[in-house]
Amino acid sequence: MLKFRRKILQASAGLVFAGPMLGQRQVLAQTPECNPNPTPRQIEGPYYTPQTPRRSNLIDGLPGEVLVFEGRVLSTACQSVAGAIVDLWSCDAQGVYDNSGFKLRGHQITDAQGRFRFETLMPGSYGNSSFRRTPHLHVKVQGPGTPLLTTQLYFSDQPLNQRDGFFNPALLVKIEQKVQQPKLALFDFVLPVQARG
User: Fold this and answer.
1) Which residue from 8, 62, 90, 180 lies 20 to 30 Å from 50 (Cα-Cα)?
2) Which residue has the higher pLDDT, 19 or 63?
3) How confident is the model at residue 19, as a pLDDT?
4) What does DSSP say about strands 126-127 and 174-176: parallel, antiparallel, or unpaired?
5) Is the pLDDT of residue 22 over 90?
């Protein structure tokens, strides 16, 4: 009887110490996934237009497959970056950039959780028979106290990915598509926060 009682006390003591750790493990499991490595940089390309309008719908009546692009801006410490500017531009479904106006161009400012959302079109490929770019989105991102990030984002289902010298699998968006809803592309940008002082 004494042995049995001792085992129960030992087991109870183990639960007392493990209890907080189990609770902590459950909280950590619910933390949103975050890669602490900064998002890779890529070239701006020749079609950037500064001073884009602040707006979330970039379609302007153009034909093509609607693409909703959502995500967050995070620091390398996995903290939300509020007030970051996310500037997005791309070509249309036929591979043509609007270089005289702001079709498929615009910027957003992230909310308190670092979130942004755009409605745009799935971009086409462009180029000629010797050089052809795979479909991609161009983005510039900068938060308070972060360096400017210029990069491009890609789509996993594109056959031209392997022939495009700029393609980087670390810059693939995650696609979610539901019946009778626009394609949803998700991507979180990670920026190093510069020390103040």
Assistant:
1) 62
2) 63
3) 41
4) unpaired
5) no
